[in-house]
Write a structure and sequence with these properties.
Substrate binds at residues 183, 187, 221, 240, 343, 348. GO terms for molecular function: glucose-6-phosphate dehydrogenase activity; NADP binding. Catalyzes the oxidation of glucose 6-phosphate to 6-phosphogluconolactone. NADP(+) binds at residues 45, 153. Residues 196-489 form the Glucose-6-phosphate dehydrogenase C-terminal domain. By secondary structure, this protein is of the alpha/beta class. It folds into two domains: 5-152, NAD(P)-binding Rossmann-like Domain (Rossmann fold); 185-420 and 434-483, Dihydrodipicolinate Reductase, domain 2. 37% of the residues lie in helices and 21% in strands. The protein contains 15 helices and 16 strands. The chain has helices at residues 15-30, 50-65, 75-80, 93-110, 127-136, 159-170, 188-198, 201-206, 229-254, 263-275, 282-288, 413-418, 422-432, 441-459, 476-483; strands at 5-10, 38-44, 83-87, 116-120, 147-152, 178-181, 212-220, 289-292, 294-297, 320-326, 336-342, 349-356, 376-382, 386-395, 401-410, 468-470. The strands form three sheets. It has an eight-stranded mixed β-sheet, with helices on both faces. The chain has a six-stranded parallel β-sheet with strand order 3-2-1-4-5-6, with helices on both faces. A hairpin with a 3-residue loop joins strand 13 and strand 14 (386-395). The longest helix has 26 residues, at 229-254. The structure holds NADP nicotinamide-adenine-dinucleotide phosphate. Residues 11-16, 19, 44-46, 88-91, 121-124, 152-153 line the site of NADP nicotinamide-adenine-dinucleotide phosphate (NAP).
Protein backbone atom coordinates (compact mmCIF):
# COMPACT_ATOMS: atom_id res chain seq x y z
CA UNK A 1 0.00 0.00 0.00
CA UNK A 2 1.29 3.46 -0.89
CA UNK A 3 1.83 5.75 2.11
CA UNK A 4 2.02 9.51 1.94
CA UNK A 5 4.13 11.30 4.50
CA UNK A 6 6.60 14.05 5.19
CA UNK A 7 9.83 12.79 6.76
CA UNK A 8 11.83 15.25 8.81
CA UNK A 9 15.26 13.76 9.43
CA UNK A 10 17.29 15.41 12.19
CA UNK A 11 20.93 14.53 11.55
CA UNK A 12 20.43 14.58 7.78
CA UNK A 13 24.17 15.03 7.15
CA UNK A 14 25.20 12.13 9.41
CA UNK A 15 26.44 8.60 8.92
CA UNK A 16 23.19 6.82 9.79
CA UNK A 17 21.19 8.91 7.33
CA UNK A 18 23.75 8.36 4.58
CA UNK A 19 24.38 4.65 5.03
CA UNK A 20 20.95 3.45 6.11
CA UNK A 21 18.07 5.90 5.81
CA UNK A 22 18.48 7.26 2.28
CA UNK A 23 19.07 3.81 0.73
CA UNK A 24 16.13 2.37 2.71
CA UNK A 25 13.79 5.15 1.59
CA UNK A 26 14.97 4.71 -1.96
CA UNK A 27 14.22 0.98 -1.86
CA UNK A 28 10.68 1.77 -0.67
CA UNK A 29 10.35 4.22 -3.56
CA UNK A 30 11.73 1.76 -6.09
CA UNK A 31 9.26 -0.88 -4.90
CA UNK A 32 6.36 1.56 -5.14
CA UNK A 33 5.67 1.70 -1.43
CA UNK A 34 6.47 5.39 -1.58
CA UNK A 35 5.03 6.98 -4.70
CA UNK A 36 5.21 10.65 -5.67
CA UNK A 37 3.31 11.91 -2.61
CA UNK A 38 6.13 12.07 -0.11
CA UNK A 39 8.83 14.57 0.81
CA UNK A 40 11.90 14.56 3.02
CA UNK A 41 13.39 17.48 4.91
CA UNK A 42 16.93 16.83 6.03
CA UNK A 43 18.24 19.09 8.76
CA UNK A 44 21.63 19.60 10.40
CA UNK A 45 23.97 22.54 11.00
CA UNK A 46 26.00 22.30 7.80
CA UNK A 47 24.93 24.99 5.31
CA UNK A 48 24.05 22.69 2.41
CA UNK A 49 21.97 23.76 -0.57
CA UNK A 50 19.11 21.63 -1.90
CA UNK A 51 21.21 20.82 -4.96
CA UNK A 52 24.11 19.59 -2.85
CA UNK A 53 21.69 17.58 -0.72
CA UNK A 54 20.33 15.87 -3.85
CA UNK A 55 23.89 14.91 -4.84
CA UNK A 56 24.52 13.46 -1.38
CA UNK A 57 21.29 11.44 -1.47
CA UNK A 58 22.11 10.06 -4.92
CA UNK A 59 25.61 9.19 -3.86
CA UNK A 60 24.24 7.36 -0.78
CA UNK A 61 22.00 5.30 -3.05
CA UNK A 62 24.86 4.53 -5.38
CA UNK A 63 27.19 3.54 -2.57
CA UNK A 64 24.56 1.23 -1.08
CA UNK A 65 23.28 -0.24 -4.33
CA UNK A 66 26.12 -0.60 -6.78
CA UNK A 67 25.38 -4.24 -7.31
CA UNK A 68 21.62 -4.05 -7.37
CA UNK A 69 21.42 -4.33 -11.16
CA UNK A 70 19.06 -1.39 -11.38
CA UNK A 71 18.08 -0.49 -14.92
CA UNK A 72 16.22 2.80 -14.48
CA UNK A 73 19.05 5.29 -14.01
CA UNK A 74 16.73 8.31 -13.74
CA UNK A 75 15.06 6.94 -10.67
CA UNK A 76 17.63 8.14 -8.07
CA UNK A 77 17.37 11.71 -9.40
CA UNK A 78 13.57 11.60 -9.46
CA UNK A 79 13.69 10.31 -5.90
CA UNK A 80 16.25 12.91 -4.76
CA UNK A 81 14.02 15.71 -6.07
CA UNK A 82 11.70 14.95 -3.14
CA UNK A 83 14.45 16.01 -0.70
CA UNK A 84 14.79 19.47 0.87
CA UNK A 85 17.60 20.66 3.08
CA UNK A 86 17.11 23.03 6.00
CA UNK A 87 20.20 24.22 7.86
CA UNK A 88 19.29 24.01 11.50
CA UNK A 89 20.78 24.02 14.97
CA UNK A 90 18.45 22.03 17.14
CA UNK A 91 18.94 24.44 20.07
CA UNK A 92 17.76 27.45 18.09
CA UNK A 93 14.00 28.08 18.36
CA UNK A 94 13.91 30.30 15.24
CA UNK A 95 14.92 27.39 13.11
CA UNK A 96 11.82 25.44 14.14
CA UNK A 97 9.75 28.35 12.90
CA UNK A 98 11.47 28.09 9.50
CA UNK A 99 11.11 24.32 9.58
CA UNK A 100 7.39 24.56 10.24
CA UNK A 101 6.96 26.92 7.32
CA UNK A 102 8.78 24.55 4.97
CA UNK A 103 6.91 21.53 6.38
CA UNK A 104 3.54 23.23 5.81
CA UNK A 105 4.51 24.21 2.26
CA UNK A 106 5.58 20.68 1.41
CA UNK A 107 2.47 19.26 3.01
CA UNK A 108 0.44 21.41 0.66
CA UNK A 109 2.62 20.79 -2.39
CA UNK A 110 2.63 16.98 -2.07
CA UNK A 111 -0.87 16.66 -0.51
CA UNK A 112 0.52 14.82 2.52
CA UNK A 113 -2.60 15.20 4.68
CA UNK A 114 -0.60 16.16 7.74
CA UNK A 115 1.25 12.82 8.03
CA UNK A 116 4.64 13.45 9.62
CA UNK A 117 7.50 11.20 10.64
CA UNK A 118 10.23 12.80 12.71
CA UNK A 119 13.39 10.71 12.54
CA UNK A 120 15.98 11.60 15.17
CA UNK A 121 19.23 10.34 13.63
CA UNK A 122 21.21 12.26 16.24
CA UNK A 123 22.76 11.75 19.64
CA UNK A 124 20.07 11.08 22.27
CA UNK A 125 21.12 14.12 24.33
CA UNK A 126 19.24 16.20 21.73
CA UNK A 127 16.00 14.19 21.81
CA UNK A 128 14.31 16.13 24.61
CA UNK A 129 15.17 19.51 23.07
CA UNK A 130 13.90 18.50 19.64
CA UNK A 131 10.71 16.86 20.91
CA UNK A 132 9.96 19.90 23.10
CA UNK A 133 10.42 22.40 20.24
CA UNK A 134 8.44 20.28 17.79
CA UNK A 135 5.50 20.63 20.11
CA UNK A 136 6.02 24.26 21.19
CA UNK A 137 6.57 25.46 17.63
CA UNK A 138 3.56 23.51 16.34
CA UNK A 139 5.31 21.16 13.98
CA UNK A 140 2.96 18.42 15.15
CA UNK A 141 -0.15 18.41 13.01
CA UNK A 142 -3.49 18.18 14.74
CA UNK A 143 -5.87 17.04 12.00
CA UNK A 144 -6.39 13.47 10.81
CA UNK A 145 -2.73 13.05 9.90
CA UNK A 146 -0.28 11.14 12.06
CA UNK A 147 2.77 12.37 13.98
CA UNK A 148 5.34 9.66 14.62
CA UNK A 149 8.74 9.84 16.24
CA UNK A 150 11.49 7.38 15.33
CA UNK A 151 14.47 7.20 17.67
CA UNK A 152 17.65 5.21 17.67
CA UNK A 153 19.54 3.46 20.43
CA UNK A 154 21.14 4.05 22.85
CA UNK A 155 18.04 4.61 24.98
CA UNK A 156 20.03 5.74 28.00
CA UNK A 157 23.00 4.27 29.86
CA UNK A 158 20.98 2.80 32.72
CA UNK A 159 17.41 2.87 33.96
CA UNK A 160 17.50 6.41 35.48
CA UNK A 161 18.99 7.99 32.32
CA UNK A 162 16.64 5.98 30.07
CA UNK A 163 13.68 7.21 32.13
CA UNK A 164 14.90 10.78 31.93
CA UNK A 165 15.22 10.41 28.15
CA UNK A 166 11.78 8.87 27.87
CA UNK A 167 10.23 11.56 30.08
CA UNK A 168 11.85 14.22 27.89
CA UNK A 169 10.06 13.00 24.75
CA UNK A 170 6.82 11.82 26.30
CA UNK A 171 5.71 15.41 26.93
CA UNK A 172 5.34 15.75 23.14
CA UNK A 173 4.70 12.20 21.89
CA UNK A 174 2.51 9.46 23.34
CA UNK A 175 3.87 5.92 23.61
CA UNK A 176 1.86 4.83 20.54
CA UNK A 177 3.57 7.57 18.50
CA UNK A 178 7.12 6.57 19.49
CA UNK A 179 8.99 4.02 17.37
CA UNK A 180 12.19 2.87 19.11
CA UNK A 181 14.49 1.18 16.65
CA UNK A 182 16.37 -1.92 17.72
CA UNK A 183 17.64 -2.98 14.33
CA UNK A 184 17.80 -6.62 15.44
CA UNK A 185 14.00 -6.56 15.42
CA UNK A 186 14.22 -5.61 11.75
CA UNK A 187 16.18 -8.76 10.87
CA UNK A 188 14.10 -11.46 9.22
CA UNK A 189 15.56 -14.40 11.21
CA UNK A 190 14.64 -12.60 14.44
CA UNK A 191 11.14 -11.93 13.13
CA UNK A 192 10.92 -15.63 12.24
CA UNK A 193 11.16 -16.69 15.89
CA UNK A 194 7.45 -16.07 16.51
CA UNK A 195 6.51 -17.92 13.32
CA UNK A 196 8.65 -20.90 14.20
CA UNK A 197 7.29 -21.11 17.73
CA UNK A 198 3.62 -20.41 17.16
CA UNK A 199 3.17 -21.59 13.58
CA UNK A 200 4.30 -25.17 14.09
CA UNK A 201 2.50 -27.73 16.25
CA UNK A 202 5.83 -29.51 16.64
CA UNK A 203 7.59 -26.62 18.36
CA UNK A 204 4.54 -25.03 19.93
CA UNK A 205 3.80 -28.21 21.87
CA UNK A 206 7.41 -28.69 22.94
CA UNK A 207 8.05 -25.09 24.04
CA UNK A 208 7.69 -25.67 27.77
CA UNK A 209 9.65 -26.33 30.93
CA UNK A 210 8.70 -30.01 30.61
CA UNK A 211 10.61 -30.29 27.33
CA UNK A 212 13.21 -27.53 27.16
CA UNK A 213 16.34 -28.00 29.23
CA UNK A 214 18.00 -24.70 28.44
CA UNK A 215 18.22 -21.93 25.86
CA UNK A 216 21.48 -20.48 24.57
CA UNK A 217 21.94 -17.21 22.73
CA UNK A 218 25.31 -16.31 21.18
CA UNK A 219 26.16 -13.05 19.39
CA UNK A 220 29.82 -13.65 18.55
CA UNK A 221 31.96 -11.23 16.56
CA UNK A 222 35.39 -12.08 15.21
CA UNK A 223 36.41 -8.43 14.74
CA UNK A 224 37.75 -6.20 17.47
CA UNK A 225 36.59 -2.71 18.28
CA UNK A 226 37.82 -1.35 14.91
CA UNK A 227 37.22 2.41 14.62
CA UNK A 228 34.44 2.52 17.21
CA UNK A 229 36.73 2.83 20.27
CA UNK A 230 35.42 6.28 21.21
CA UNK A 231 31.86 5.02 21.50
CA UNK A 232 32.81 1.61 22.87
CA UNK A 233 34.84 3.06 25.76
CA UNK A 234 31.60 4.64 27.02
CA UNK A 235 29.39 1.63 26.33
CA UNK A 236 30.98 -1.83 26.48
CA UNK A 237 29.36 -5.10 25.48
CA UNK A 238 26.64 -4.94 28.12
CA UNK A 239 25.19 -1.66 26.89
CA UNK A 240 26.02 -2.25 23.24
CA UNK A 241 24.53 -5.72 22.84
CA UNK A 242 22.97 -7.23 25.94
CA UNK A 243 20.47 -4.69 27.28
CA UNK A 244 18.90 -4.22 23.85
CA UNK A 245 19.46 -6.93 21.21
CA UNK A 246 19.96 -9.93 23.47
CA UNK A 247 17.10 -8.98 25.80
CA UNK A 248 14.80 -8.59 22.78
CA UNK A 249 15.74 -12.09 21.62
CA UNK A 250 15.20 -13.42 25.16
CA UNK A 251 11.68 -12.01 25.25
CA UNK A 252 10.79 -13.42 21.80
CA UNK A 253 12.01 -16.85 22.88
CA UNK A 254 10.35 -16.91 26.28
CA UNK A 255 7.08 -15.01 25.79
CA UNK A 256 3.78 -16.80 26.14
CA UNK A 257 1.73 -17.38 23.00
CA UNK A 258 -0.38 -14.30 22.13
CA UNK A 259 -4.08 -14.94 21.35
CA UNK A 260 -3.75 -12.91 18.16
CA UNK A 261 -0.61 -12.06 16.22
CA UNK A 262 -0.90 -8.30 16.21
CA UNK A 263 1.38 -5.58 17.61
CA UNK A 264 -0.52 -4.96 20.83
CA UNK A 265 -0.91 -8.64 21.82
CA UNK A 266 2.66 -9.46 20.85
CA UNK A 267 4.16 -6.55 22.73
CA UNK A 268 2.06 -7.28 25.80
CA UNK A 269 3.47 -10.83 25.89
CA UNK A 270 7.02 -9.57 25.29
CA UNK A 271 6.71 -7.09 28.14
CA UNK A 272 5.48 -9.87 30.47
CA UNK A 273 8.40 -12.04 29.36
CA UNK A 274 11.05 -9.48 30.22
CA UNK A 275 9.29 -8.67 33.49
CA UNK A 276 9.44 -12.37 34.35
CA UNK A 277 13.22 -12.59 34.07
CA UNK A 278 14.60 -13.13 37.55
CA UNK A 279 16.16 -10.04 39.09
CA UNK A 280 19.48 -10.94 40.72
CA UNK A 281 21.10 -9.86 43.97
CA UNK A 282 24.75 -8.75 43.84
CA UNK A 283 25.85 -12.21 45.04
CA UNK A 284 23.82 -13.82 42.28
CA UNK A 285 25.43 -11.54 39.72
CA UNK A 286 28.86 -12.80 40.80
CA UNK A 287 27.68 -16.38 40.36
CA UNK A 288 25.79 -15.91 37.12
CA UNK A 289 27.59 -13.26 35.06
CA UNK A 290 31.06 -13.17 33.53
CA UNK A 291 32.77 -10.25 31.83
CA UNK A 292 35.89 -10.23 29.74
CA UNK A 293 38.22 -8.09 27.69
CA UNK A 294 40.33 -9.40 24.83
CA UNK A 295 44.10 -9.56 24.94
CA UNK A 296 46.44 -10.32 22.04
CA UNK A 297 45.96 -13.49 20.02
CA UNK A 298 48.21 -16.47 20.65
CA UNK A 299 50.62 -15.45 17.86
CA UNK A 300 50.68 -11.82 19.04
CA UNK A 301 49.56 -10.51 15.63
CA UNK A 302 46.43 -8.80 16.92
CA UNK A 303 46.35 -5.98 19.44
CA UNK A 304 44.84 -6.32 22.87
CA UNK A 305 41.78 -4.08 23.40
CA UNK A 306 43.77 -1.75 25.67
CA UNK A 307 46.37 -1.23 22.91
CA UNK A 308 43.83 -0.37 20.21
CA UNK A 309 43.75 3.23 18.99
CA UNK A 310 41.41 5.34 21.09
CA UNK A 311 41.14 3.04 24.10
CA UNK A 312 42.41 3.73 27.59
CA UNK A 313 45.63 1.89 28.58
CA UNK A 314 43.87 0.69 31.72
CA UNK A 315 40.41 0.38 30.25
CA UNK A 316 37.98 -1.61 32.36
CA UNK A 317 35.43 -1.80 29.54
CA UNK A 318 34.14 -5.31 28.86
CA UNK A 319 34.33 -6.65 25.31
CA UNK A 320 32.68 -9.90 26.39
CA UNK A 321 29.67 -10.80 28.51
CA UNK A 322 28.24 -14.19 29.37
CA UNK A 323 25.41 -14.77 31.77
CA UNK A 324 22.68 -17.06 32.95
CA UNK A 325 19.18 -15.63 33.12
CA UNK A 326 16.20 -17.46 34.57
CA UNK A 327 12.70 -16.97 33.23
CA UNK A 328 9.64 -17.26 35.45
CA UNK A 329 7.17 -17.02 32.60
CA UNK A 330 4.65 -19.79 33.35
CA UNK A 331 5.37 -22.22 30.52
CA UNK A 332 9.15 -21.99 30.83
CA UNK A 333 9.33 -21.31 34.56
CA UNK A 334 12.86 -22.01 35.82
CA UNK A 335 14.42 -22.68 32.41
CA UNK A 336 17.94 -21.17 32.24
CA UNK A 337 18.86 -18.92 29.34
CA UNK A 338 22.59 -18.70 28.76
CA UNK A 339 23.62 -15.59 26.87
CA UNK A 340 26.99 -14.70 25.41
CA UNK A 341 28.40 -11.91 23.28
CA UNK A 342 31.90 -10.73 22.58
CA UNK A 343 34.42 -9.25 20.23
CA UNK A 344 37.45 -11.07 18.77
CA UNK A 345 35.92 -14.47 19.29
CA UNK A 346 36.79 -17.51 17.20
CA UNK A 347 34.09 -17.06 14.60
CA UNK A 348 31.38 -14.56 13.73
CA UNK A 349 28.00 -16.10 14.41
CA UNK A 350 24.67 -15.09 15.85
CA UNK A 351 22.63 -18.10 16.80
CA UNK A 352 20.09 -19.47 19.24
CA UNK A 353 20.20 -23.05 20.47
CA UNK A 354 17.18 -24.67 22.06
CA UNK A 355 18.38 -27.72 23.99
CA UNK A 356 15.61 -30.19 24.69
CA UNK A 357 15.37 -32.40 27.75
CA UNK A 358 16.61 -35.89 27.65
CA UNK A 359 14.76 -37.71 30.39
CA UNK A 360 13.73 -40.82 28.52
CA UNK A 361 15.34 -44.11 29.43
CA UNK A 362 17.68 -45.26 26.67
CA UNK A 363 16.01 -48.54 25.66
CA UNK A 364 18.59 -49.04 22.92
CA UNK A 365 21.52 -49.62 25.24
CA UNK A 366 22.40 -52.36 27.73
CA UNK A 367 23.93 -49.69 29.89
CA UNK A 368 21.09 -47.97 31.78
CA UNK A 369 23.34 -44.93 32.41
CA UNK A 370 24.03 -44.32 28.73
CA UNK A 371 22.08 -41.22 27.79
CA UNK A 372 20.62 -40.51 24.39
CA UNK A 373 22.09 -37.47 22.64
CA UNK A 374 19.97 -34.40 23.29
CA UNK A 375 17.81 -32.91 20.54
CA UNK A 376 18.90 -29.38 19.69
CA UNK A 377 17.15 -26.84 17.52
CA UNK A 378 19.51 -24.13 16.27
CA UNK A 379 18.27 -20.91 14.74
CA UNK A 380 21.02 -19.39 12.61
CA UNK A 381 20.61 -15.63 12.48
CA UNK A 382 23.79 -14.36 10.85
CA UNK A 383 25.84 -14.70 8.76
CA UNK A 384 24.07 -18.01 8.04
CA UNK A 385 20.29 -17.88 8.10
CA UNK A 386 18.21 -20.97 8.69
CA UNK A 387 17.76 -23.84 11.09
CA UNK A 388 19.41 -27.05 12.15
CA UNK A 389 17.59 -29.77 14.04
CA UNK A 390 19.68 -32.46 15.67
CA UNK A 391 18.02 -35.77 16.38
CA UNK A 392 18.97 -39.42 16.80
CA UNK A 393 18.51 -42.06 14.18
CA UNK A 394 19.62 -45.61 13.61
CA UNK A 395 22.99 -45.88 11.90
CA UNK A 396 25.14 -48.82 10.86
CA UNK A 397 24.35 -52.50 10.61
CA UNK A 398 25.89 -53.73 13.86
CA UNK A 399 23.08 -53.99 16.40
CA UNK A 400 20.64 -51.18 17.02
CA UNK A 401 22.84 -48.11 17.50
CA UNK A 402 21.63 -44.53 17.48
CA UNK A 403 23.65 -41.56 16.33
CA UNK A 404 22.73 -37.90 15.95
CA UNK A 405 22.03 -36.50 12.48
CA UNK A 406 21.52 -32.87 11.45
CA UNK A 407 18.51 -31.74 9.48
CA UNK A 408 19.63 -28.46 7.91
CA UNK A 409 17.89 -25.62 6.15
CA UNK A 410 19.95 -22.61 5.05
CA UNK A 411 18.84 -19.66 2.99
CA UNK A 412 20.84 -19.42 -0.23
CA UNK A 413 22.84 -16.29 -1.09
CA UNK A 414 20.12 -15.38 -3.64
CA UNK A 415 17.37 -15.78 -1.01
CA UNK A 416 19.32 -13.69 1.49
CA UNK A 417 19.88 -10.99 -1.13
CA UNK A 418 16.12 -10.68 -1.62
CA UNK A 419 15.47 -9.95 2.07
CA UNK A 420 15.04 -6.21 2.60
CA UNK A 421 17.56 -4.46 4.80
CA UNK A 422 16.39 -4.09 8.42
CA UNK A 423 15.97 -0.31 8.02
CA UNK A 424 13.82 -0.67 4.92
CA UNK A 425 11.42 -2.97 6.74
CA UNK A 426 11.38 -0.85 9.89
CA UNK A 427 10.71 2.42 8.05
CA UNK A 428 7.94 0.70 6.07
CA UNK A 429 6.44 -0.54 9.37
CA UNK A 430 6.65 2.94 10.90
CA UNK A 431 4.90 4.39 7.84
CA UNK A 432 2.15 1.82 8.22
CA UNK A 433 1.94 2.47 11.97
CA UNK A 434 2.82 -1.17 12.70
CA UNK A 435 4.69 -1.38 16.02
CA UNK A 436 5.34 -5.14 16.01
CA UNK A 437 9.08 -4.72 15.49
CA UNK A 438 9.72 -1.75 17.77
CA UNK A 439 10.62 -1.78 21.44
CA UNK A 440 8.02 -0.62 23.95
CA UNK A 441 9.19 1.63 26.78
CA UNK A 442 8.28 -1.01 29.38
CA UNK A 443 10.56 -3.55 27.69
CA UNK A 444 13.42 -1.06 27.53
CA UNK A 445 12.91 -0.01 31.15
CA UNK A 446 12.79 -3.55 32.55
CA UNK A 447 15.82 -4.64 30.53
CA UNK A 448 17.78 -1.75 32.03
CA UNK A 449 16.66 -2.64 35.56
CA UNK A 450 17.91 -6.21 35.10
CA UNK A 451 21.22 -5.06 33.63
CA UNK A 452 21.76 -2.23 36.12
CA UNK A 453 22.18 -4.78 38.93
CA UNK A 454 24.94 -6.46 36.93
CA UNK A 455 26.56 -3.17 35.95
CA UNK A 456 26.50 -1.78 39.50
CA UNK A 457 28.00 -4.97 40.88
CA UNK A 458 30.78 -4.87 38.30
CA UNK A 459 31.46 -1.16 38.72
CA UNK A 460 32.20 -1.74 42.42
CA UNK A 461 35.00 -4.19 41.57
CA UNK A 462 38.19 -3.92 39.50
CA UNK A 463 38.31 -6.60 36.81
CA UNK A 464 41.44 -8.56 36.04
CA UNK A 465 41.65 -7.62 32.35
CA UNK A 466 42.60 -8.73 29.75
CA UNK A 467 41.27 -12.19 30.53
CA UNK A 468 40.78 -13.89 27.17
CA UNK A 469 42.94 -14.46 24.14
CA UNK A 470 41.80 -12.98 20.84
CA UNK A 471 40.46 -15.79 18.70
CA UNK A 472 39.18 -17.83 21.66
CA UNK A 473 35.55 -18.10 22.75
CA UNK A 474 36.03 -15.82 25.76
CA UNK A 475 37.22 -16.34 29.32
CA UNK A 476 37.26 -19.80 30.88
CA UNK A 477 34.67 -18.62 33.41
CA UNK A 478 32.10 -18.42 30.57
CA UNK A 479 32.49 -22.15 29.97
CA UNK A 480 32.48 -22.86 33.73
CA UNK A 481 29.10 -21.12 33.97
CA UNK A 482 27.58 -24.05 32.07
CA UNK A 483 29.92 -26.82 33.19
CA UNK A 484 28.89 -26.30 36.79
CA UNK A 485 25.28 -26.93 35.70
CA UNK A 486 26.32 -30.09 33.86
CA UNK A 487 25.95 -28.39 30.47
CA UNK A 488 28.10 -26.97 27.70
CA UNK A 489 27.82 -24.34 24.98
CA UNK A 490 26.31 -25.88 21.86
CA UNK A 491 28.12 -23.40 19.61
CA UNK A 492 31.76 -24.19 20.06
CA UNK A 493 33.76 -23.55 16.88
CA UNK A 494 36.99 -24.59 18.61
CA UNK A 495 35.83 -28.16 19.11
N1 LIG B 1 25.57 5.27 12.25
C1 LIG B 1 24.95 4.15 12.53
O1 LIG B 1 25.04 3.16 11.81
C2 LIG B 1 24.07 4.07 13.75
C3 LIG B 1 23.49 2.83 14.08
C4 LIG B 1 22.65 2.75 15.18
C5 LIG B 1 22.39 3.88 15.92
N2 LIG B 1 22.96 5.06 15.60
C6 LIG B 1 22.63 6.24 16.40
O2 LIG B 1 22.08 7.22 15.55
C7 LIG B 1 22.46 8.53 15.97
C8 LIG B 1 23.18 9.24 14.84
O3 LIG B 1 24.33 8.51 14.50
P1 LIG B 1 25.31 8.90 13.32
O4 LIG B 1 26.30 7.81 13.23
O5 LIG B 1 24.56 9.28 12.11
O6 LIG B 1 26.04 10.19 13.93
P2 LIG B 1 26.81 11.34 13.14
O7 LIG B 1 27.33 10.85 11.84
O8 LIG B 1 27.75 11.95 14.12
O9 LIG B 1 25.65 12.37 12.81
C9 LIG B 1 25.15 13.27 13.75
C10 LIG B 1 24.26 14.26 13.05
O10 LIG B 1 23.80 15.23 13.99
C11 LIG B 1 23.97 16.54 13.41
N3 LIG B 1 24.12 17.49 14.51
C12 LIG B 1 25.00 17.43 15.55
N4 LIG B 1 24.80 18.46 16.38
C13 LIG B 1 23.75 19.17 15.88
C14 LIG B 1 23.06 20.33 16.31
N5 LIG B 1 23.39 20.98 17.43
N6 LIG B 1 22.03 20.77 15.56
C15 LIG B 1 21.68 20.14 14.43
N7 LIG B 1 22.29 19.02 13.97
C16 LIG B 1 23.33 18.56 14.69
C17 LIG B 1 25.21 16.40 12.55
O11 LIG B 1 25.24 17.30 11.50
P3 LIG B 1 26.03 18.71 11.48
O12 LIG B 1 27.40 18.43 11.98
O13 LIG B 1 25.97 19.10 10.03
O14 LIG B 1 25.24 19.59 12.35
C18 LIG B 1 24.95 15.01 11.94
O15 LIG B 1 24.06 15.09 10.85
C19 LIG B 1 23.33 8.30 17.21
O16 LIG B 1 22.54 8.41 18.34
C20 LIG B 1 23.83 6.88 17.05
O17 LIG B 1 24.11 6.29 18.29
C21 LIG B 1 23.80 5.18 14.52
Amino acid sequence: MNQKALFIIFGGTGDLAYRKLYPALFNLYEKGYLKEDFAVIGTARRPWSNDHYHEVVMSAIEDAGRDSGRTNDDLPRKFANHFYYQSHNVDDVDHYVALRKLADELDEKYQLEGNRIFYLAMAPRFFGTIAGHLKDQQLLTDGDGFNRLIIEKPFGRDYPSAKELNDSISGSFKEEQIFRIDHYLGKEPIQSIAGLRFGNALFNSLWSKEHIDNIQITLAESLGVEERAGYYETAGAMRDMVQNHIMQIVSLLTMERPDVFDPSHLREKKIEAVENIQMYSKEEVDQNFVRGQYGEDEFKTQLAYRDEEGTDDNSQIETFVAGKLITHNPSLDGVPIYIRTGKRLTKKSTQVNIVFKNNDKNIFSDNPDEKLETNVLTMHIEPDQGFTLEFNTKTGNQGYKLSPVHLRYRKTAAEKARIPDAYEGLIRDALAGDKTNFAHWHEVAQAWKIMDVVRNTWDAETPDFPNYVSGSMGPQAADDLLTRDGREWVFNPRK
